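Data card: per-record layout.
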Amino acid sequence: MKLKFAKIQGTGNDFIVINNLSSSFEKFSETLPQEQVVRLLCSRRTGVGADGLILIEDSSVANFKWRFFNSDGSTAEMCGNGMRCVARFAYEEGIAPEKMTVETEAGIVEAEVKGRNVKVKLTPPSDLRLNLKVEGLTVHFINTGVPHAVIFVNRLEDVDVESVGRKVRFSELFSPKGANVNFVEVHLGKVLVRTYERGVEGETLACGTGAVASALVAAKVFGLKSPVEIEVSTGERLKVYFGEDFREVYLEGPTTWVYDGVVRDEVLSGKG
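The structure for this 272-residue chain is written out next.
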């Protein structure tokens, strides 16, 4: 059995994207649990390697529905960079028009493809909480489709993202699902971000909803105006647009279609 996929990345966040309109993923998985198959495919050494896996499926309320899996097999309601990548795939594969709607667990998301650049309108953020105390740190919280903690630091390069991120991610304040953790340096209007992502359980090169969370909290704390430009670990930049009340929020940035591939079911004989 073979499974077709595309590998697409957005500012360093890489994803396996699969057209599942004909249930090809279920046929490939056969009797194995889907979360195990996701782990095997996303494995960096024994699989394709990715931060997440995205399935495109039929929808009665949007151009298509997505199912999003983190690399550990868990699901997430939303992923900003993943959405930008899947939108480009859907447009170039003729699944959706240039301006499209996508059904997600976080609600209906709008996206517009402009060549390699993709702009996504996210669902309105919620649950903004400032100046929480976690592990002796001042932490801000906002849900931008998925829950995010934001911590402002003086020097981003000095932060132990893995260690501190893991502690904050599992704080009781954010239970039961936990939160992604963004470390943010703001200097002369420049915003730099590093993110610890739940589901990956480590630092990723970028996080779209994390960039949005960081921009919105920075707007509240430092008075930054829209659009806010976010520089991620790859050195690439994302733009976050928002109104004064945060009711309309957009994320825009580049994507790279890395390659198209076919994976054989031999990969399923590994340990996941």
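Known properties of this structure: The chain has a mean pLDDT of 95. The chain has two domains: 2-122+256-269, 126-247.

See the next section for split statistics.
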